[in-house]
């Protein structure tokens, strides 16, 4: 027989999965509790396994706040962190930052200063002088 909140002996309890996903997203227990309209104490108890997370409606609310499907909480297999799965983007960013010397670069599309044509001048109200 498995412990409450576990599907088999190899998978962490649903509360621990909830805690891992919450931490990956950089949410404190208080922020997470506010998002799911529960108390911080409730979140803490579920994460520690003191309180069961066994109602589907609550699991769906928790999953939505974490940005995952309810199956992720139930299955025990959290998907790879999307930030960690960048396929070389991080390496390119690191290389760009290593080349950066701190001086602003001119951008022709933004740094061009518009000057009115010479000849007739207009007053600030738009009337010709």
How would you describe this protein?
With 129 residues, this protein is mainly alpha-helical. Helix content is 47%, strand content 0%.
Question: What order do the helices and strands come in, and which of them pair?
Answer:
Elements lengths: L13 H11 L4 H8 L3 H9 L7 H11 L3 H6 L13 H11 L8 H4 L18
Helix pairs in contact: 1-3, 2-3
Provide a concise account of the structure shown.
By secondary structure, the protein is an all-alpha fold. The chain is built from 7 helices and no strands.
How large is the share of residues in beta strands?
Answer: under 5%
H/I helix tally = 7
Helix content range of the residues, please?
40-55%
Shape: elongated
Major sheet details? none
- How many β-strand runs? 0
Q: Which class best fits the helix and strand makeup?
A: mainly alpha
What is the overall pLDDT average? 77
User: Which regions have little confidence, pLDDT < 50, spanning 5+ residues?
Assistant: 1-7
What's the helix-strand series? HHHHHHH
Cα radius of gyration in angstroms? 27 Å
Ends distance: 92 Å
